[in-house]
Amino acid sequence: MITNMASIQASDAEATPVLHTYTPASRVAENVARWVDREHNNGIAIGFSEFTFSVRDPLKNEKTPVFREKVTFVDPIVDITIPTAPVLIASPRATLEFLFPAIMSEQQRKNFVAKFQSMMVLGAATRLGDNIVAMSLPY
Hints:
Elements: E1 8-11, E2 19-25, E3 32-37, E4 49-56, E5 66-74, E6 77-79, E7 87-90, E8 93-101, H1 106-119, H2 129-134
Antiparallel strand pairs: 1-2, 2-3, 3-4, 4-5, 5-8, 6-7
């Protein structure tokens, strides 16, 4: 099923998980969908967490035509100790790009995404999620 520009929800990893709602925002450019969490970081714009998704068609002169799909997640950290002058401390970011040769079928793309998704489950034994958080290669 193709996703609409509806809100997306994600939980964090706090002891009591907090649900974050990303609502559709304006498109930043052609072929880019954008969602923003305006509720957290005290509603301060520089602290809005953002999720984007873009799709690019193959380039006209490519020998092997490839569709490019890019997902980006940015979750700023803001110092609000002085409410009248919030300061952006850091902007952790994750970027994922899928390159699908034009010859792939929809089922082949589904299989690829499912395999990738199952490898990336965060916090599960034998998966890479814990290593990403610990910034450590598997041993």
